[in-house]
Amino acid sequence: MTTKIGIIGDGHVGCTVAHELIISGLVDDLVMIDVNEGKVKADAIDFEDAMANLTNHVNIIVNDYSALKDADIVISTLGKISLETKGDRFQELEYNKKQLEPITDSIKSSGFNGILIVISNPVDAITSLYQQLTGLPKEHVLGTGTLLDTARMKKVVAKKFNVDPRSVSGFALGEHGDSQFTAWSTVKVFEKPLAELVKTESWKPSDLEDEIKFGGQTVFMGKHYTNYGVSAAAVRIVRAVLTDSRTELPVSSFQDKYGTYMSYPAIVGREGIVHKIDLQLTAEEEELLQKSAEAIKEKSQA
Q1: Rounded Cα distance, 122 and 297, in Å
Q2: Which of 19, 57, 140, 176 is labelled catalytic?
Q3: Which whole number is the average pLDDT over 92-96?
């Protein structure tokens, strides 16, 4: 059975996601869509030029929304990161909202009925808009959310204990933005709660928060965009969907309790969000989650 994936947006993130999918062997047919026809055609030719030296062959289709009809997954990377002059992802909201209506109309017209993964910022608000405008089930529309922020947390904590980031468990929750936070009660290393381990350390978890929260800004200031971290997060979600691995991931999904899309761990499989997790958070963390939900809803209406 062949796998078809569509990518809407061929900027720094879109072409990085495309590259990862091509070299990973996860995709057979790749649909690349962008308003900059010269750029998307150039990338398609560049990828085709690479095929003779790659392990996998991929058929590339350019700017054809009708080809999304039988796609398994569509990934949205549209955006204009240059608008984020202050590191506030909501600075992209009005621009991206204007792009959505013709795009979602085209997605609906194609007959697409797969899983929609959103990277576009502000990801929680844009994911919600995609779901509303396409009419796809809420479980089938999800965003990368704090999967990237969780990876940043694991990197920072792992360096403190000299372990692989994959040996750290725990979650960043809420908005992929200013109101996000690390739920330290969920973080473990060596299968021990971080709170227990830091008793013998000269630092405390709160000392790490700025590096985790503003890590993306450091990357942005250095090269004026981010791409590798978030692309890896998106491809991890793609893999979970295509293989029906039912992996626990902190993705942006609709939270009935809070009435908004935001990040919270869920089981991700072939049908998107297949099961929701109920974390045992501290009272302080519950309050931060509530505040994050309110911030997303307030800024989405602005």
Answers
A1: 12
A2: 176
A3: 81
Annotated binding site for NAD(+): 9-14, 34, 96, 119-121
Contacts of 197 (CB under 8 A, 6+ apart): 161, 189, 190
**In contact, 27 and 234? CB cutoff 8 Å:** no
Q: CA-to-CA distance for 60 and 41, rounded, in angstroms? A: 10
Let me know if 57 is a catalytic residue: no
Quick one: DSSP state of residue 174?
A: B
197-251 pLDDT, tens digit per residue, is: 999 999 999 999 988 888 888 888 899 889 999 999 999 999 999 999 999 999 9
Nearest CA-CA partner of 47 in 25, 15, 70? 15
pLDDT at residue 83 is higher than 80: no
**Token couple for 88:** 């506030």
Binding residues: 9-14, 34, 96, 119-121
Percentage of residues of the chain with pLDDT beyond 70: 96
